Amino acid sequence: MVGLKPSDVPPPLGVKMLSAGAAACIADLITFPLDTAKVRLQIQGEKALSQGVRYRGVFGTISTMVRTEGVRAPYNGLVAGLQRQMCFASIRIGFYDNVKNFYTGGKDNAGVGVRILAGCTTGALAVCLAQPTDVVKVRFQAQVRLEGVPRRYSGTMQAYRHIFQHEGIRGLWKGTLPNITRNALVNCTELVTYDLIKEAILTHKLMSDNLPCHFVSAFGAGFVTTVIASPVDVVKTRYMNSPPGQYRSAINCSWTMLTKEGPSAFYKGFVPSFLRLGSWNVVMFVSFEQLKRAMMHTKATS
């Protein structure tokens, strides 16, 4: 990422992609219950999916899930989530610096516009490749595991097969457009904000390039990203989780939410979104920086 001193040797692409994927998996393992709570709160209001269960607040949602569905419920969809991160984060985060350098022709001090363009590019590319894993993850997280309530999917691979058999290849890539929109926003805001905050801290010598600097940069990036991306995230979640025929398109899903539930529906699950994205950013970026350095050190000493 940014903040490298001129004397530093940039890590190769493979190191950055592997570090990003591994760091994202670590972050998912720690914050996944918050993500599941966010999904449950976002789809609340769709009567066909509520099963009579009402969720209140982040930790109230997690508590209700554990009480009614068991201790494993907050980790519904974890396998698909880890599959998604290894494919998704390795591209959108690990590939970011290289795409940014490509747009600048290898020049230093890339402008904000170039950074935004690089974030859009890697975010869109990652979605196009990893969308099926995101569809399965969201559907597992939305699946209520109550006694007597039929479950849509019994396992991760069965879910991929079931979606393909009943909805075709389009079912696995359902919601790609809103997800590209959402992840273009997330990637641009997250990476560019992290980039800029870290660069400002190092330029003004407020901190050195170490863990506190990474923590502050990641936390700030998480908050800004949540504010900007939350409406698109809610639409993406509802549309990807919807059964065939419920919504004609992502735009129709947005309009239905607006007319039936009001503008506040687009910020359902905002607190868990911020708790999850803020904590996820901190864990991911700190892990990413440390893993990247460790891999470079290992390579240098081998």
Textual characterization of the structure:
- Helix 1 packs across helix 4 and helix 6 (112-142) crosses helix 7 (156-172).
- The two termini are 24 Å apart.
- This protein is mainly alpha-helical and 302 residues long.
- 74% of the residues lie in helices and 0% in strands.
- The model is unreliable at 2-7 (pLDDT under 50).
Give a nutshell description of this structure.
The protein has 302 residues and is mostly helical. It is 74% helix and 0% strand.
The overall average pLDDT, rounded, is 83
Number of DSSP E strands: 0
Structural class: mainly alpha
Strand content: under 5%
Helix content: over 70%
- Gyration radius (Cα, Å) is 20 Å
SSE diagram, text form:
Layout: H1 13-43, H2 47-50, H3 58-69, H4 78-92, H5 96-104, H6 112-142, H7 156-172, H8 176-203, H9 211-241, H10 250-261, H11 270-301
Helix pairs in contact: 1-3, 1-4, 1-11, 4-6, 5-6, 6-7, 6-8, 8-9, 9-10, 9-11
List the defining traits of the structure above.
single chain, 302 residues, mainly alpha, 11 helices, 0% strand, globular
